[in-house]
Amino acid sequence: RHKEKWAATAPRIPSTRLALHHFDTSYSLHLGALWPSVRAGLLCEQKYGALLNNFAAADHVPEELELLNATDFISEALQKVQQWQRGAAVGEAATGCQEGSGEGRTGMQAEIVAQAEMSSPLCTSISSKIKCYTFPRGDITRFRPARPDGLGLLDYYLMDAASLLPVLALDVQPDDFVLDLCAAPGGKTLALLQTGFCGHLAANDVSVSRTKRLYQILQSYVPKEVRDTVSVTSYDGRDWDQVKGGTFHKVLVDVPCTTDRHSAMEEDNNIFHRRRTKERQMLPMLQLQLLMAGILAARPGGAVLYSTCSLSPLQNECVVERALDVAQAQFNISIHPEDLSHFRTLFQDTFSFFSECRLGELVLPHLTANFGPMYFCKLRRE
Ligand code: SAM
After folding, report:
1. Which ipTM score applies to this complex?
2. Which of the chain's ends, N or C, has fewer CB atoms near its CB within 10 Å?
3. For 218-240, how does the pLDDT look when each residue is reduced to its tens digit (9 = 90+)?
4. So where are the chain's domains?
């Protein structure tokens, strides 16, 4: 009796403090000397990007944003690649190097050629239709709220710009069948639609209330004729195989995670609340099951993109590594992780990347570029 009363009146430790304590213990080991600066980033105001809505009549918006010194980080990266490629071509011509031969290059030329070669996969694949404006490093200007056009469609969607990297890595091609397995509230679904390439888009989320927010976003940003090509469902993603297996060219598995930035800053809906300990401990298992469902939903030759907004290797690389084993052992499916290191080269002006992921890429929060965390890893089904 006495013990019960004591337990009921003991001061409650804020969930944000529990989260930070947990992060201090595990991330200081994982990130080493980088952790103090990442921690400071997590605790400061995050930066947003403005994803332009190609469906809205908002031709004036790029000019308006450029006057404020914002730039489209995607087209900027593509321009950089073109410059490298031109530099590489000039270097080759000047030294008379043959393609594939490194002889006769100076160190600088070799670096330009290496950068151009590393970045060329993205150059050929990136959908330049996605446009996202960000303010330069160190500039913490805020975007104005989105405005409706004459038909009521909003001109841009404010989101963590790092959330676009998984969508860009997915590399949607014309007429692809695309599955967004954990889609709500719908930021990445909207970005997938901005490519203009989805032959069919299935957007699923187990949460009915969050699915309502997804509908609202589609309503606010996408015209009816395009909305009609999207099928929104509320299945448990782990059962997707029973709905439609092996049919999609591209699958996005943006799993529930410890949402580190939210957990460090907000008491509301915090997964570090003591009552949610079990749920939090079970996250890697849920993530693995969702990733497996995504793998089974992809057709042979198709691609699966796994992403989280956590820094935790247990929720990132470990889940991917386990999925590769399970796919082989239980389903006889071979999966190959794809190298995305060219993303680091291309987008280094906008984001801070962690250079030591065993698999996939990780955007680290940083005071001068306070996006992320965002982990993403691309898998190709044989
Ligand atoms: N992709 C979304 C976006 O960009 O706006 C964010 C997705 S959020 C990180 C993870 C989502 O997974 C949540 O909306 C949650 O409701 C959903 N979820 C959790 N468990 C699920 C399950 N078993 N099946 C499908 N969705 C699930």
Report:
1. 1.00
2. N
3. 999 999 999 999 999 999 999 98
4. 71-125, 161-381
